[in-house]
């Protein structure tokens, strides 16, 4: 700190050292410049601050440019990611399952960054992520590693092992999606399906273009998540259309906590209709284990 520095300057300098982002740092530096002593002897000192401001502004612009185009994807609660070689039809599948409208083309390496769409199935919103082809620059192992379900999209049998060998995520469920089945005659189709069965893959043979077997694919995706759906509501009101998603064998307490942190402490009791109830409207406590498609009504203090 220079001699005769003001109290404001000291405060700004404190902010500068405490700043966590470049933007905060820049703001603090600008404050420092405003409050720095303006006499002749401090000219070099002010010049130093100006230089720091200039450099920081450039760095911010540069990092903004670098991050542009790289879409951040906030992982949905239920997420399936499309992985495969170029041209296998990943984007066509995204388009046929969801509201998304990705670029589709026959020339290869069409998708260069992740695209997302939402598949609404059985009351649940499932996030489907379309990725650039595996082994291309834009392919994102990070997204695949965090995903719940991997849709391995192929148009030839030999592609399956090639892709599986390249996957690092060993936790996610895998569904082999054999696409473009419309290109084959009945006999070849049957042989392909036999081979997939013999290899014991969890698979579905579809045509994204001709919309064949898409319902099977949707069901397989939904089942891969191993979740239960609970519909909740306040007394006297209609239940929510969008269920709360829970792992199997969750308790009423866990359900309440998922809805709102500390909510379980406010609950006197609840009533349940559906699979986990002995009779309609049964009164239950926090330790009650809920089941798929239960309807729960909460009573708070
Ligand atoms: N016959 C047939 N063609 C299909 C089917 N699905 C996709 N295609 C065609 O295959 C080509 C590639 O489709 P895309 O959906 O762009 O493939 P992709 O896997 O996203 O390709 P990349 O983004 O390059 O990885 C296009 O010409 C599609 O029209 C299908 O079920 N049957
Ligand atoms: Mg694509």
Overview of the structural elements:
By secondary structure, the chain is an alpha/beta fold. The protein has 3 domains: 7-67, no CATH class; 79-224, Rossmann fold; 228-300, Ubiquitin-like (UB roll), CATH 3.10.20.30. Helix content is 35%, strand content 20%. The chain has helices at residues 7-18, 22-35, 43-67, 90-97, 141-146, 159-166, 186-198, 214-224, 252-259, and strands at residues 79-84, 115-121, 124-130, 149-154, 173-178, 203-205, 228-233, 244-246, 267-273, 282-284, 294-300. The strands form 2 sheets. A 6-stranded mixed β-sheet has the order 2-3-1-4-5-6, with helices on both faces. A hairpin with an 8-residue loop joins strand 9 (267-273) and strand 10. The protein is flat and about 90 Å long. The protein starts with 6 loop residues before the first helix and ends with a strand.
What's the short story on this structure?
With 301 residues, the protein is α/β, with parallel strands linked by helices.
Essential attributes:
five-stranded mixed β-sheet, 9 helices, 3 domains, six-stranded mixed β-sheet, Ubiquitin-like (UB roll), Rossmann fold, binds magnesium ion, 301 residues, alpha/beta, binds guanosine-5'-triphosphate
Enter the CATH topology name of the largest domain: Rossmann fold
**Total helical elements:** 9
Report the average pLDDT across residues.
91
In total, the number of domains comes to 3
Set out the fold topology.
Blueprint: H1 7-18, H2 22-35, H3 43-67, E1 79-84, H4 90-97, E2 115-121, E3 124-130, H5 141-146, E4 149-154, H6 159-166, E5 173-178, H7 186-198, E6 203-205, H8 214-224, E7 228-233, E8 244-246, H9 252-259, E9 267-273, E10 282-284, E11 294-300
Parallel strand pairs: 1-3, 1-4, 4-5, 5-6, 7-11
Antiparallel strand pairs: 2-3, 7-8, 9-10, 9-11
Helix pairs in contact: 1-2, 2-3
Bound molecules: guanosine-5'-triphosphate (GTP) and magnesium ion.
Guanosine-5'-triphosphate binds next to helix 4.
